[in-house]
Amino acid sequence: MTDSFNSKASLKVGSKTYSYFSLKALESKFDIARIPYSHKILLENLLRYEDGENTTKEDIEALAGADLKKLPNQDINFTPARVVLQDFTGVPCVVDLAAMRDAMKTLGGDMGKVNPLCPVELVIDHSVMIDYYGSKDALDLNAKVEFKRNQERYSFLRWGQEGLKNFKAVPPDTGIVHQVNIEYLARVVFENDDGVLYPDSCFGTDSHTTMVNGIGVLGWGVGGIEAEAAMLGQPSSMLIPEVIGVRVTGKLAEGATATDLVLTVTEMLRKRGVVEKFVEFFGPGLANLAAADRTTIGNMAPEYGATCGIFPIDNETLNYLRLTGRSEDQIAVVKAYAEAQGMWWTPEAPEAEYTDVLHLDLGSIQPSLAGPKRPQDRVLLSDVKGNFQTAFDGEQKLRPSAGPTEVVDGDKTFTLKDGAVVIAAITSCTNTSNPAVLIGAGLLAKKARELGLRSQPWVKTSLAPGSKVVTEYLKKAGLIDDLEALGFYVSAYGCTTCIGNSGPLNEPISKAIQDSKLSVSAVLSGNRNFEGRVHQDVRMNYLASPPLVVAFAIAGSTNIDLTSEPIGKSKDGKDVFLKDIWPSSKEIQDTIAKAVTADLFKSSYADVLKGDERWQGIKVAKSETYPWDEKSTYIQNPPYFVGMTKDVPGIPTIKRARVLALLGDSITTDHISPAGDIKKDGPAGKFLEAHGVQKADFNSFGSRRGNHEIMMRGTFANTRIKNAMTPGVEGGVSKYIDSSGKAGDVESIYDVAMKYQKDGTPLVVLAGKEYGTGSSRDWAAKGTILLGVKAVISESFERIHRSNLVGMGVLPLNFTDGQSAQSLGFDGTETFDIDGLKTGAAEVDVTATKADGSTVKFKAKVRINTPMEWQYYENGGVLQYMLRQMAA
Asked: How far apart are the first and last CA of the chain?
């Protein structure tokens, strides 16, 4: 440690004395009070890690003295206190660590070095699907199927739990990672083994890691590769971020929910443009915003595009820690440390300076949904019918519907129409952490049940709480029976419908949708509603609060205005309107006060790492290196280190590269990364069948993230992706162009890529604006490099995916001067030469040679943003960089 500012100080709390790095040591030179809360966390991190090399006195001064209106173009390092994984993204992280141990052995290094150096906590929450619903045994049946499907993966994770130091796994059927994070894992203020206090912070391999921002913890989603770097002690390098302040005033009006609030915030911040920026909430309205509402807002940061959406530490933070069963000693440390560092918020606290300030009046929030395809497309409840009809008219031009269809499903016969809600799911971390909206859903169900209302027979209903605490307080409130009466039985503890784990629709319903080309809807309390994500039969997806999810299950359609049309008829034949069953704020708060108590949290988390007998009964391989099974279709040793030497390969040359895909705007990581169901007739399905796996046992792409052979076959294979090289054909397809320039037939992107690999031809992807929007899917980058793509040229990138591309050795480039693939006249038949690429280059020269031999020359901006990223790129990726560092 250098400690140029003599910042190490002591802090006594109760009978114990701690040490910490005091921001007050900088007060003689800098106005610390004006620094945003989030920047104070970054600043403390620099003080604590100052070593004169990776982190210097100049870095500290640059951040402490930064003009938020005109930030210096300077990179700083940030080292998170811990790493949080969910199992979909966590499995490949552990696979890579196991592969690195093998590679370290080959390079002659010490395998024991390949261990997490900071606490790593994995929560298994993404593997459960809603195969069963609408009955009391749905939870147990879904858990049984989950364990059967994922035995290999869970055995592998148990190996990691036993064989890796600093690694913990929260077993399946416990809760959603982000809710477990805020309710149990988050420290808010961290204490290390040496008695040093510092702000809790985390990287997570799920973009909604930002949920923990709601209780004052700085954390955000990263790709698995960046998480692995953090696990192995590598700081993350980033430019000093802009901070957009949101001044909050007022309080929520009667009838408005936290979901309505966050959909409004998402729309507002998307319009402002906050990509790669921090967002920080402040102002007198914070006093009226419960911690659960704050975490809901923090959760949606990826949807509004920000790196984080953070709130300061205040009395509400302490109330939440107390409610969730944290000790009084820990709560006292949090308050004392926050006060000592100037991180404690009160309504009288001086306001920081920000890059820009927006105003959010809580009193202006109205009941809303978002959809039908993007979370930032907010729709007032009163406008949902018109929104559906507009979207439906657009669908008709592409695939005309045959109209209403009679369906016989078991003992039920009904007419299925366009707009029918076929999935109504209370799901996702966004809302299942929030007692107000969950209690609200239960009270609405209670009132509806009393009037004789029921969900429609074509609606697949499910309730997937974020933790077991939710079930306990719904029981304590006497509302679980009411939810069940409307079909909302607890079906899983995990992230389900929101990530595409919605499970199958009943076969007659699915067949009717496909045969009649119906445009049906899903209504879910999630954070993502991109095309093809929730269910492949469902073309329109609306995000809504849990009470509205129940309401739309009763109505059975999105082709309705619930503010003016009856939701159904009571048992005595009278029209019932939504306002008749909507609970008041007082009813909700009174029920919360009685039912949501600290003892529920303490008992639910008492033995959280132990798991049930199924988890405990899994056989574990006890060995320093993982015993790979060549026959496994779940876990395989990835090829990243094949042929690797201790020498750094340097900047690669990209010449005569062919276009694998020519894509438009807002291509999400859901379009790129394999996710959801595995199609039988796709490359991944054919691979599984060739290896003796029946369709019923395909499981999901997410569950098979530990097998690169399957994942690369599913990259760019989304059924809704549109490649301009194959006009009129939807899905992950392309055309192979031979050396003479002749284009072949339309084939899967994987098959085309393999033909190019056989030729030794490098590939590029051309794209429009916001390339890589969405979840922090590491396989969107891993699959890209394994297909042979050496560069992506887009108009702009989303933050996480750009970083992941660099981390896997793929060159990210942006068109400049307002140019685009369209304005330059590209159709995908060109070859591309990239010249002038050298370490630190801001631009490169690109020459596109068309099929007729003519050329188009243009400049492209190099999006390798920091010196550390250049080192990763020169090494072929971050994993190769770290392995060479450890081997040396």
From this structure: 22
Calpha distance 859→153 (Å, rounded):
45
Own/partner pairs, 795-798, CB within 8 angstroms, 24+ separation: 795/665, 795/767, 795/768, 795/769, 795/771, 795/820, 796/275, 796/769, 796/770, 796/771, 797/770, 797/771, 797/772, 797/863, 798/275, 798/305, 798/669, 798/770, 798/771, 798/772, 798/773, 798/774
**Percent of all residues in the chain with a pLDDT value above 70, rounded to a whole number:** 100
Q: Are residues 483 and 442 in contact, defined by beta-carbon separation less than 8 angstroms?
A: yes
pLDDT in tens, 591-620: 999 999 999 999 999 999 888 889 989 988
The residue assigned the tokens 């801001």 is: 842
Give the torsion through C-alpha atoms of 712, 713, 718, 722, to 10 deg. Answer: 90
Q: What is the CATH number of domain 639-887?
A: 3.20.19.10
Q: What is the per-residue burial (b if ≥16 Cβ within 10 Å, else e) of 757-773?
A: eeeebbbbbbbbbbbbb
220: tokens are: 């955000």
- Residue 331's identity, in one-letter code, is I
Fold of 368-596: Aconitase; domain 3 (3.30.499)
Q: Which residue has the tokens 């939504």?
A: 578
> Which residues, 6 or more positions from 295, have their beta carbon under 8 angstroms from its beta carbon?
182, 211, 212, 213, 214, 215, 433, 434
Taking the complete model, does pTM exceed 0.70, yes or no?
A: yes
Spatial contact of 226 and 203, defined as CB atoms under 8 Å apart = yes
* CATH class in words for 82-364: alpha beta
Q: Residue 787's closest CA among 715, 720, 682, 731?
A: 715
pLDDT in tens, 639-672: 999 999 999 999 999 999 999 999 999 999 889 9
Residues 6+ apart with CB under 8 A from 832: 654, 656, 657, 658, 659, 764, 791, 793, 846, 847, 848, 849
Q: Per the structure block, which two tokens stand in for 761?
A: 């031809």
Q: How far is CA 470 from the centre of its chain?
A: 22
Q: What is the pLDDT of residue 468?
A: 94
User: Residue 509: what residue type?
Assistant: I
Angle among Cα 634, 635, 638 to the nearest 5 degrees reads 125
**Tokens read off for 49:** 């890690």
> 82-364 and 368-596 share one CATH topology?
yes
Q: Where are the domains of the chain?
A: 8-62, 82-364, 368-596, 639-887
- Residue keyed to tokens 């010490």: 110
Q: How far is Cα 88 from Cα 706, in angstroms, rounded to an integer?
A: 9
DSSP assignment of 447-468:
HHHHTT----TT-EEEE--SBH
